[in-house]
Amino acid sequence: MATRLYIDADLAVGLSLALPDDAFRHWVQVLRARLGDRVVLFNGRGGEYAATLKELNRRDATVLIDSHADVDRESALQLMLAQAVSKGDRMDYTLQKAVELGVSVIQPLISERSVVKLDAERWDKKIEHWQGVVIAACEQSGRTRVPRLLPVLKLAGWLEQPLDTGSKLSLAPTATAAFRDIPRQTSACLLVGPEGGLSDAEIAHSERCGFSSVRLGPRVLRTETAGVAALSAMQALWGDLG
Fold it and tell me: Who is most buried in 139, 160, 199, 200, counting CB within 10 A?
């Protein structure tokens, strides 16, 4: 697949566009693009645009958009991942793979056993970093729409909010139901706990709020693996994998 760059701007055939700094660094400085090289641009609003590098200077570059392709690689299965924040690069991994698996909304959560504790300013920086992870995963995977990354919320308060989704599922190793037992869905929300999992009280709270506990199998998975494995199973059963 050709290099793809996310550009947060209106795009159109015939437009001459100066590359934003982050796109310039990635394509020109890191990937060593040269005059005449081709690139695919997308702005997250559907479709993608082929462009040619027409001007190249030490600190900036300009591309000319010459065609538009009305491609759609988004999953018809609308998936929301409600992921308790995990430590270090575990959360990055989860977000990256969730985007590759077609998730459309990501809700980071703080639960009783969450080990990441930051002040408001540092949470804002964390969200900015995660947004970069999400965009990079869209560039790599060929997605034409960028999933919504919501602000971090406390799990207890979030559970009380109404959700416009189909099945509401919570991963729990003690559950008896499996994904194959659930009827085919067109949309679903998946709740995944942090290191150490959700507490018994949180599982009970989620069930009172309409979530059904479900298990993946006989083995206990790490938090960065559990959500990815569950999303894969959901896409294989109800979506576009397989």
Answer: 139
Q: Which of 51, 69, 87 is the last residue of a domain?
A: 69
pLDDT value of residue 120: 83
What is the Rg, in whole angstroms, of the alpha carbon atoms belonging to the chain? 20
Give the mean model confidence (pLDDT) for residues 119-138: 93
If asked whether residues 158 and 95 sit together in one domain, one would say: yes
For the cut 80, the answer to whether the pLDDT of residue 194 exceeds it is yes
CB atoms within 10 A of CB 217: 11
Are 119 and 230 members of one domain? yes
d(CA 44, CA 114) in angstroms, rounded, equals: 31
Q: Are residues 65 and 96 in the same domain?
A: no
Determine the structural domain holding residue 166 and report its residue range: 78-238
Higher local confidence (pLDDT), 77 or 164: 77
Report how far Cα 95 is from the mean position of its chain's Cα atoms. Answer: 5
